[in-house]
Here is the input.
Amino acid sequence: MGPYDLVILPIPFEMTVSWNEGTSNGPNACIEVSSQVELYDPLLNSEIPCGLSFHTAEEWSSEESTLRKQLDSIQKYIKPWINGEQFPVVLGGEHGILLPIIEVLNEHPEIDNLNQVTIVQIDAHADLRDTLNGEKFSHGTVIRRCLDAGVGKIIQIGIRAYSEEEAKIIDSDDRIETWHARDILGVIERNTGWPRLMERITQIGGPIWLTFDIDGLDAGIVPSTGTPVPGGLSYWAAIEIIEKIFTNNSVKVLGADINEILPGGENGLTQFNAALIATKIIACHISTL
Ligand SMILES: [Mn+2]
Here is the structure.
């Protein structure tokens, strides 16, 4: 295989989705609809792939019987691709795919210790529960598990649905920095909160993994994701966050995942938005080369 400049990794993993079902069709639907996405981005002076070599890997599949074994098989699947040689863009699948990604970063040549890594999490949910429906490895617990694995910093943006348990962790754990949707987008705060967030992103340094739960976007533009929540990021808010991250020269984005893509709705709006976000991330990555 390879060498390629960029690889798309489809992981149709679905074991713990708590509401709608069907995220396992997400990666394919996103790839299919990407043929409708314009490949010209004003950041670049040519169309993606701009002469670079892209590869879409065969999608992950597994017959393993337990969640942990399934996650281990995701580890095995992504390991050859998340090694600093190509830029990985992972398509999910539910948010639980993030844990094996982070575990693989342990052996990334640019990482000595996971505590150097910052996860930037776009999400409606905090995903900080210790268990969800008795399950430790779940899309509702995945950020908690990444902290357990040793990640040094979480910057979560767009959060607007969380439990008392999660609110207490947000308040007490210094590793977690939460930008609640209301504080950056709400009527009262948006004129001050949004510029504060933009300023904060310019101060991040070091290696970043970008995890984009599509339900971080407003429910109106991702109507068929597993748990759509109103009051989320507009398309432009998401785009400006992504651009801000990549234009920060002291940051190294190791890769990104776009997850909880559940195809459907009128005109396939959810997967189309996921494809737009993935394309934006790719354009931003190319702009840093
Ligand atoms: Mn999530």
